[in-house]
Amino acid sequence: MATTNITGIKGFNDILPDEVGKWQLVESVVRRILSAFGFHEIRIPILEKTELFARGIGETTDIVEKEMYTFEDRNRQLVTLRPEATASVVRAFIEHGLHLRPTVRKLYTIGPMFRHERPQKGRYRQFHQINVEAFGIEAPMIDAEVIYALVTFLEELHVADVEVHLNSLGCPRCRPPFRQRLEEFLAGVDHLLCDDCKRRRLTNPLRVMDCKVSHCREVLAGAPRMLDFLGDDCREHFQAVQDHLTDLQVSFTLDPSMVRGLDYYTRTAFEVLARHLGAQNAVGGGGRYDGLMKAMGGPDLPGVGFAIGMERLIMLLGEAFHRPSYGSLCFLACLGAEARRRGFRLLQEMRRNQVPAEMDYEEGSLKAQLRKADRMEATHVVILGEEELARGKAILRSMETKVQEDIPLDAIVERLTALLPTPPTQEPGRPAKTKLLWEI
Ligand code: HAM
Questions:
Q1: For residue range 82-118, what is the model confidence (pLDDT) as tens digits?
Q2: What are the pLDDT digits (tens) for 153-203?
């Protein structure tokens, strides 16, 4: 048998136990905030039919042209690992007729996305997004509200030094004159553009504006701006979004060159950029996509939303994040076979009563067990030897104060639950304490 190590796939990361606390913190803060903003969670599959993304995101976007993980499954169906979530959320919304239920028009989902990009700091092939969508509201208030939710979330996590960049991409009514001017401009500078841009100029000129090649960026600085072509409705809508953001004290920078990398956007587009992230500096981005639901065969409902890149967000938490202490832990030190057997039962009782507890499964000296308790940062140790067992008692020692007390075995769990802080989450409908085995 071959003995070489099997390693993970490039661009696909493990999230190790040391890091998981940050992920859990981010997820719990986002759930709390989004639920206050009236968003409901939806969980959607990771694998979808390829045509969903080709149609949803746009055939001539970078994502669809060169970044998707697409393959034929065993039934020869072309399937794709989702590169983003908006198209899937829209699909699910239509498929389950959620528009008929007025309460579920604001949805969020958290999970992995897949793009075959060149991995570098902040850019991975599997990455995670918090994805937020609001359907059916045309009023500019909702644009401001989703941006406000995003900013609130970053503030709650003490992420500083971020900037909201804002643009309007107009609508199918005001785009044609802009497109024409852009095409004329691009034809004039064609010889200066990279090969991708030369091709895109003919297939999807707006996508040229998204080119990251530096000499193209210089040339494109002189390109016409969508903002100058907005029709009255789009201009008023965009102005109102800005006014609401100002009312909410969200500062933003107008960025007429920002076009976003997906074709579905109309009107408001935004990105949140972080100064400390280096080249991959967008921590989140989104916008309005009023035509997508209809184009996917659903009702003609507008939509607006955003996604936050969790890896990038977690890189920003760095200093702001104080590793929470592991909380309380009770270590059960047992001496002798009988005590270990009784201790093992006690260990499970502690856990069933929400007391985090550990013991040494191997026989060891008291000294060795106490050393282990120390390494595990136990806050309390329960010592149970043959002599204590004979007396029906155990010694409870606080690792902080070093105070020891003798406690009857059947009162230990109660004493510990009184000493340790109540765990923050209690499942609804469950009693705070389960019955002890010897009470049954
Ligand atoms: P997006 O701008 O493609 O938008 O991605 C949103 C965020 O995901 C980015 O700002 C970035 O933080 C993160 N991200 C994207 N690609 C990578 C990568 N390869 N590695 C690490 N992080 C990455 C969307 O996906 C839209 N669906 C957002 C949206 C929702 N618009 C409306 N609703």
A1: 999 999 999 999 999 999 987 789 999 999 999 999 9
A2: 999 998 988 999 999 999 999 999 999 999 999 999 999 999 989 998 998
Token pair of 253 as six digits? 């920078």
CB 225 within 8 A of CB 256: yes
Rounded to the nearest whole angstrom, what is the distance from the C-alpha of residue 130 to the centroid of ligand 1? 9
pTM > 0.85: yes
Using the mean position of ligand 1's atoms as its centre, give its distance from the Cα of residue 293 in Å: 19
- Residue with the nearest Cα to atom 11 of ligand 1? 309
Give 120-159 as a DSSP string: BTTB-SEEEEEEEEEES--SHHHHHHHHHHHHHHHHHTT-
Facing residues of 162 across strands?
A: 274
- Say how many Å lie between the CA of residue 286 and the centre of ligand 1: 8
Angle at 122 between CA 144 and CA 286, to 5 degrees: 20
The answer to whether the CB of 312 is under 6 A from ligand 1 is yes
Residue 247 DSSP SS3:
helix
Out of 9, 84, 108, 133, mutate this one to test ligand 1's pocket (max ligand atoms within 8 Å of CB): namely 84
- Return the sign of the alpha-carbon dihedral for residues 83, 89, 90, 96: positive
Report the chain's C-alpha Rg in angstroms: 28
Q: Which domains does the chain have, with CATH numbers?
A: 17-174+230-320 (3.30.930.10), 330-419 (3.40.50.800)
